[in-house]
Protein: alcohol dehydrogenase (NADP(+))
Organism: Actinacidiphila acidipaludis
Amino acid sequence: MTTVAAYAAPAPKAPLERTTIERRAVRENDVLIDIKFAGICHSDIHQVQDGWRPGTFPMVPGHEIAGVVSEVGPGVTKFAVGDRVGVGCMVGSCQECDYCKAGLEQYCANGGPIWTYNGTDKDGTPTHGGYSEKIVVDENFVVRIPDALSLDVAAPLLCAGITTYSPLKHWNAGPGRKVAVVGLGGLGHMGVKIAHALGAEVTVLSQSLRKKDDGLRLGAHHYYATSDPETFEKLAGTFDIVLNTVSAGLDYARFLSLLRTDGAMVNVGLPEETVELDLKSLFGRRRVMTSSNIGGIPETQEMLDFCAEHGLGAEIELISADQINDAYKRVQASDVRYRFVIDTATI
């Protein structure tokens, strides 16, 4: 085992602090990664605060990991020392069920995937994430970061990128399709970039017009404030896809009214509280209310290659590790454009 420095929350809702953790020795099919950058996802804050479910503490968050391979196990065939690689939200699954065999490891039927942090590994030990110097991961859950992407702007793609790319591809965003992205934050700004690159006509729906210039610069064709009641009247029955990236409850009936017949509202932000839906808002136009949970490993690699081809990196603010707690407060205040990324050399 190897002792490495990390930042962890010692208890629910506690500030993160510098500590050390143990990483397992490299096994037959493992890859040891020197982490260079780790993105801060709103999911990290939800889990540190026990917002979704009771967590395992001390908790080292981070599932937007970019780094360089420093050691490989004797059975590794996909990677070599020096490769630029990434790790997202999963570090394992059964790899035997129909979903895993189809490259949909995020929907593993045998207990679900092994999450990169706040999860339990196959040996019963807790998993620890990317706010650390190094990580050891099965090669089947490592992806290659193309040379065209710098590691700092690539790190958030391992969650924010794939979380928006997967539903946009599944629901056929592309030429001739109209996509609305609800919220222009860490997820939303990548949703805009990716939907635009796929060829869709993109509209941002945000509470105000404060970020309008950014939205248009990132690839949106239109930008509307949801605080204006006329927005919902003007855009009724317009969109093929409404991609909801916010993690707070909404008046879902109002947003569903924006869909065309057979349109889909896809939720990728997960509120902590239970939400209610009036089914009458679905019936009139055979609308779909659905969700999406990241993407499998093959699709994550596809997303990275797509982003490299189209020059799509996250918009980031690079911080040192001692700024993590301040960054959490700023994320909660929507005061980031658009993803904090930790320079792990500062841990």
Q: What stands out?
A: The CA atoms of residues 62 and 130 lie 4 Å apart. The mean pLDDT is 96. The radius of gyration is 20 Å.
